[in-house]
Amino acid sequence: MKRHYAALTFMIIGSLILSGCANGTKHKLNSPHKLTITTTLYPLEYFTKRIGGKHVSVSNVIPPGTDAHSFEPSTKDMIKISDSDAFIYNGTGIEGFADKVNETVKNEGVESIKAAKGLTLEKVEHRDEDPDEHGDKDPHIWLDPVFSIQMAKNIEQALIKLNPKAKADFTKNYLSLKKDLEKLDTSFNQTIKNSPHKEIIVSHAAYGYWEHRYGLKQIPVSGLSTSQEPSQRQLQDLIKHVKAKHIHYVLLENSASDKLARVVEHETGTKTLKLRNLETLIPKDAEANEDYLSLMQKNVQVLKQSLK
Ligand SMILES: [Zn+2]
Predict the structure, then answer these.
(1) Residue 32, number of CB atoms within 10 A of its CB
(2) Gap from CA of 279 to ligand 1 centroid (Å)
(3) Which of 17, 59, 7 lies closest to 38 in space, CA to CA?
(4) Do the strands 249-252 and 271-274 form a parallel or antiparallel pair, or are they unpaired?
(5) For 106-126, how does the pLDDT look when each residue is reduced to its tens digit (9 = 90+)?
(6) Which of 58, 126, 243, 287 would you call most buried, defined as having the most Cβ atoms within 10 angstroms of its Cβ?
(7) Carries keyword Signal (predicted)?
């Protein structure tokens, strides 16, 4: 029912946009010299700003602090996307609305750029019988610095296509970002390699790529999406495991899924630390001028402490 309603809304918005642009001209809100870009997840906003530099004006449609897994764009968001030169999305299933956006804007001269193009996503095994409507691939690729380099490369290539005259700047900026991401990769690698144990308890299963890349093991309270809550028995098993393994920390993330992680914390007497899943930038971090790199370094420090 909800799904049909959403589809109808998109059709109405689509026809509004089409009728508004019947003469085929685009109504750019920004300076003609800058590309206007809309992004979905915070890391895409950060990568695009770094690579695009002075040649782009970037705005993110998922507001700070909201749950990216359940976000739906408003009519205003759809118009903003339609008015932009390019829409950059992750494209790993986390943005449930991306297909509809792409369909709505495809005749609007908006370039759709899938940041995950060419990446091989990890499959995740379901822990219950109920198949997840979000699919079984892990969408959280931006938490892996090595995958982030490839996403940045895709963004660089797309920007060059949109504005070939600025190619030298885009490439220079991409190489500087790549260097930062390589340093981050080294930090994760060293920290996890040198830690006495490798298990973390997390709110939702966002950290699968740290398992594959660095040998960490995440034990999620909720599933791959924040909406996949554990059964009572799964929750009890997890509490038993934390006690038996003498795990000292539960890692929260400032999202809805923290509620159940709090139950685990309470039942096991563990302490809590905050991990950033970076799906959105939380307002407190934005105010403190934190960015993707500084927050990922904070994640490294949280791992260091919780893996003791
Ligand atoms: Zn997530």
Answers:
(1) 6
(2) 7
(3) 59
(4) parallel
(5) 889 999 999 999 998 887 754
(6) 58
(7) yes
